[in-house]
Write a structure and sequence with these properties.
This protein is an all-beta fold. The protein has strands at about 15-30, 30-45, 45-50, 55-60, 75-85, 90-105, 110, 115-120, 135-140, 145-155, 160-170, 175, 180, 195-205, 215-220, 230, 235-240, 245-250, 255-260, 265-270. The chain has one domain: Beta Barrel (Maltoporin, Chain A). It has no helices and 20 strands. A hairpin with a 6-residue loop joins strand 14 and strand 15. The model has no long low-confidence stretch (mean pLDDT about 90).
């Protein structure tokens, strides 16, 4: 049986506006520093929401048309970015950045991180709520502070070393019922732990005669990994199909996913 496709009148495609203002300057001959302000605002979202008590799914833009009972989707990202990039000397290069940011609104995005569902535009992430007054607050991927740095150094005998380091604050947590209903203001139930990550790479160019070129590569990922939780169960209470409370979740507050463990990879590249 061929499915019936219905046209959604007045539907507007999903888009956002972004404004950037920055300044860069050469600090030394090959070293550049910069600062940049970013403001990104979601103007329209598209998705499918479940209407209650009608018991049907409706596709459209939240805040108008068939989904006018819901608020307009809001997702505002504001950031201040500082960067340093360039050559320290002929053999050493560096790239570093610090980001101070805030991600605020009522629309987490195409991926529903609260329920770990991948269904882009398949539904409005807040569209199952019985109460159409969707709370605004800090969104799941809000990280106030993020610092990243990478550097490399080339020795004269064919060895090149590289490293990358990152440190970032945790993400906001919630108390939820059924994965859809907020029991307290969005993003106010604490945060996941602050995390850092350190990686190394060693590359050695093997001297060979002729057109052949061989490189030995050693990668060390997540050095001294602390195995801290990066995803935590935020559902405190279970709900039935009619949005009635049926009991507490014994796994509330427990880790779902941790930082990856330390690993090593050895490889070889041959060019001819």
């Amino acid at each position: 049986m061929t499915p019936v496709r219905q046209e959604v009148t007045g539907l507007t495609g999903q888009y956002f506006d972004e404004f950037r203002l920055g300044y860069e300057r050469l600090f030394r001959e090959n070293l550049k520093i910069g600062v940049q302000g970013i403001h990104r605002t979601l103007r329209e979202a598209v998705g499918e929401a479940y209407l209650w008590p009608e018991g049907q799914f409706v596709f459209g833009n939240p805040g108008r048309g068939a989904l006018s009972r819901f608020p307009k989707a809001q997702r505002d990202y504001t950031a201040l970015v500082f960067t340093v990039q360039g050559q320290v000397n002929d053999n050493c290069s560096v790239l570093a950045s610090y980001v101070l940011s805030r991600n605020y609104g009522n629309y987490p995005g195409l991926y529903d991180s609260y329920n770990h569902l991948v269904s882009p535009n398949g539904f409005v992430p807040f569209g199952y709520s019985v109460d159409p007054k969707i709370p605004t607050g800090l969104l799941p991927n809000d990280r106030t502070h993020v610092f990243k740095c990478s550097a490399s150094y080339r020795f004269g005998f064919g060895l090149t070393t590289g490293t990358s380091f990152s440190w970032q604050t945790g993400t906001p947590l919630n108390e939820m019922a059924g994965g859809w209903k907020f029991l307290r203001p969005r993003g106010t139930a604490g945060r996941t732990p602050n995390i850092w990550d350190l990686n190394f790479r060693l590359v050695y160019d093997v001297p060979l005669a002729g057109k052949w070129g061989t490189r030995l590569i050693l990668d060390i990922f997540h050095v001294a990994s602390r195995q801290k939780p990066v995803d935590i169960d935020q559902q405190r209470i279970f709900l039935d199909d009619y949005f009635n409370e049926i009991g507490p979740n014994p796994n509330y507050g427990l880790a779902i996913r941790y930082q990856p463990a330390m690993s090593v990879r050895l490889g070889m590249e041959v060019k001819f």
